[in-house]
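re the bet — no i am not wrong, look at it urself. input seq straight from the record:
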Amino acid sequence: MSTPGSNRSGIAWAIAGGVVLIAGIVAIIVAALTSQSSPQEAPTQSWGGSSSTPAATSESPVAEGTMVDASVRERGWIAEPITSDAQTYMVAALQAASTFDTTKAPREDWLGYLDNWFTPDTRYTAGADQLAAMEASQVELRQGVVLPKEQWDDLAREDGRVTASVGEIALVPVTEDPSGDMSIGTADVTLTFTRSDGADGEVSYEEQVRVSVQVLCGPGSVPTSGTRQRSGDCKVVRYFTEPLEP
């Protein structure tokens, strides 16, 4: 027969063992949840149709796992980042508007891809007005910001491509923005043109332009559907035909 002291000792060890078992189960559950919440590769999408930041090269300024669709780089385009940092997004947006390869994708596909970077301007209260303003900004991009079709066609005849590197970004305030979620960045963008020299070689040259882009990084932004982008991540509101200075 066991004594009262030995009974108490056995109960104590049983309780201790139960605590260890529960702790082990909790650890397993936490590990499983952590594994499920780890970032996954962004799905491939079919495209239908301080006051300054350091200079960036034509390489994407964000890591592989934080792009809306990394596969677009195979078409010679800049992948849109998934970020709420305005300056990081501005660098990518300014690169995207001037980086393409005429041998890998036609101009209209590239422009259709750039349309997916846009979000409505939340300074308009009516949905119809927001949509109209966004469509006007997309037209403005086509007609006054990107390389004109005639120059694209000329470049395409010589298997040309363009890459963009962005200098320091100067921030410009946005008027009538009560949310404070919008900002405008202006930077010098160096365009490197590469084309066939007509003798099995290539020739490259540079041009510099100054460009401004307005972005929205707040709950009013509309993410690209079917991607890991969420409301609050940065999106383009407008590119400007003339640079805006602080």
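see?? Residues 44-240 form one domain. told u. also The mean pLDDT is 80. so pay up
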